[in-house]
């Protein structure tokens, strides 16, 4: 059968990729403390322990503050970069945009160590704020990619019509352009939020004494009795990530359809 080998490869690849995620809820609802088959029974005690853990709640609160702040900052900066790259021509445009997109290809361990050295050398104390700086840096390229697609899909005649009707550049951007790219803005916010919430390496280097959710999970892996609770937490995070990515993709496709552009691919 034509393409049969490729289909088998695709099935095996997807099984290898998603089988660990499927196992998370299985062990999260398993009453046994040992992560192994056969399963002993059904329980929701691990979820109860998760919500009753004060340290985990603090780590979750820190991660939410970091994720929201990073998403807003990355999206705001991404609007400027995407607007400039799609609407204007200026010297060294290619190299500048390449520098903005550089965190996509640089190893996060290099970015983390570089930020750590720079921040400590200028006397900045490690805190939630330093993690926000790092997460904004790595989220911005994703925001620029999403927003560039949104701005490229715009019909420039609408902007020109606003100018003809007496609007200034600022008012035309606020009243005409922003509403049209709003699905892209929401998609960028959700994508950046998800990336920041799941990010570990930069948080590990820059958080100082403030725990974040990924660093807390890493610290608990040393204790076997905590593993089922971590499985429950992982299940919640997977569900949250899937929901956020689905919403982001919905708004991205809605924005493409609204502006009459061509869908060149997405997250899902």
Structural description of this entry:
There is one protein chain. With 268 residues, the protein is an all-alpha fold. It folds into two domains: 1-43, no CATH class; 54-154 and 182-252, MetI-like (MetI-like fold), CATH 1.10.3720. Helices cover 75% and strands 0% of the residues. The chain is built from eleven helices and no strands. The longest helix has 34 residues, at 54-87. It starts with a helix and ends in a 9-residue tail after the last helix. The mean pLDDT is 82. This is ABC transporter permease. The chain crosses the membrane at residues 12-39, 59-84, 96-122, 128-154, 175-207, 227-248.
Q: What's the N-to-C terminus distance? A: 28 Å
Structural class: mainly alpha
The succession of helices and strands, N to C, reads HHHHHHHHHHH
- Number of helical runs? 11
Jot down its keywords.
268 residues; mainly alpha; MetI-like fold; cell membrane; transmembrane; Bact_Polyamine_Transport; MetI-like_sf; transmembrane helix
Outline of the structure:
With 268 residues, the protein is an all-alpha fold. The protein has helices spanning 4-28, 45-52, 54-87, 93-101, 108-121, 128-152, 156-164, 169-198, 201-206, 213-220, 227-259.
Task: Please give the structural blueprint.
Elements (H helix, E strand, L loop, with lengths): L3 H25 L16 H8 L1 H34 L5 H9 L6 H14 L6 H25 L3 H9 L4 H30 L2 H6 L6 H8 L6 H33 L9
Helix pairs in contact: 1-11, 2-11, 3-6, 3-8, 3-10, 6-8, 7-8, 8-11
């Amino acid at each position: 059968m034509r393409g049969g080998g490729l289909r088998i490869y695709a099935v095996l690849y997807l099984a290898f990729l998603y089988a660990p995620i499927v196992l998370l809820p299985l062990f999260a609802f398993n009453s046994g403390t040992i992560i192994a088959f056969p399963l002993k029974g059904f329980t929701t005690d691990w979820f109860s322990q998760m919500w009753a853990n004060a340290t985990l709640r603090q780590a979750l609160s820190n991660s939410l503050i970091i994720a929201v702040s990073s998403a807003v900052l990355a999206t705001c900066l991404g609007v400027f970069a995407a607007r400039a790259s799609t609407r204007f021509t200026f010297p060294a445009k290619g190299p500048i945009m390449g520098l903005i997109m550089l965190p996509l290809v640089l190893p996060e361990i290099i970015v983390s160590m570089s930020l750590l050295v720079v921040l400590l050398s200028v006397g900045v104390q490690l805190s939630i704020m330093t993690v926000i700086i790092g997460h904004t840096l790595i989220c911005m390229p994703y925001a620029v990619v999403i927003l560039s697609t949104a701005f490229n899909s715009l019909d420039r005649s609408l902007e020109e019509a606003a100018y003809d009707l007496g609007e200034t550049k600022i008012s035309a951007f606020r009243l005409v352009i922003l509403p049209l790219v709003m699905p892209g803005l929401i998609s960028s916010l959700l994508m950046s939020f998800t990336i920041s919430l799941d990010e570990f390496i930069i948080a590990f280097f820059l958080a100082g004494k403030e725990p974040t959710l990924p660093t807390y999970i890493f610290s608990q892996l040393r204790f076997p009795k905590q593993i089922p609770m971590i499985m429950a937490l992982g299940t919640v995070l997977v569900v949250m990530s899937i929901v956020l990515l689905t919403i982001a993709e919905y708004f991205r496709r809605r924005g493409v359809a609204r502006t009459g552009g061509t869908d060149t691919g997405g997250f899902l």
